[in-house]
Sequence to fold (222 residues):
Amino acid sequence: EDQVTQSPEALRLQEGESSSLNCSYTVSGLRGLFWYRQDPGKGPEFLFTLYSAGEEKEKERLKATLTKKESFLHITAPKPEDSATYLCAAPGAGSYQLTFGKGTKLSVIP
Amino acid sequence: NAGVTQTPKFQVLKTGQSMTLQCAQDMNHNSMYWYRQDPGMGLRLIYYSASEGTTDKGEVPNGYNVSRLNKREFSLRLESAAPSQTSVYFCASSEGGAAEAFFGQGTRLTVV
Fold:
């Protein structure tokens, strides 16, 4: 069964305190690993797609990396506006179904 | 460029009532999806349409029906609403099955 597991469930950081969020997956025939940001009351907003181990993508203070079994979302010197729930997802082999993790709720305190 | 537009944004139904959630995308995407999001459960796929003219069940299809009206529009119907269908519903679209999906703003549905 395809599974995507995120940790931690919640993370509180002081402004400027760098950290990483983890997404581990057991999806056969990985055809992409997606990261999304979701603000309260809004739909998920697409951030990155990673396709192969060793690949990295960056956007402002966020950098996503991928290994054969997990992905990390590194947040460097976060600001309060980075507070959100971060979701990762992967499509199952041969299907149109994205399997989502339950997310990490990030709070950045000024 | 609006992306994915859902209507309505909020709805309260009584048990047994029916309603249709509407979704339209303007990105010329082939595939469209309906998800529900519940606390502690994450996003779960209800139905999807890989391309115009096709629809398929996702993880939690019971109690729902869908219609892919054309390439732009994909609707979700609750024939007889139940309290267990209280949730936030998201429509999404993508170029294809393995491509990143773009989401609407959601419909918050309460069934009393």
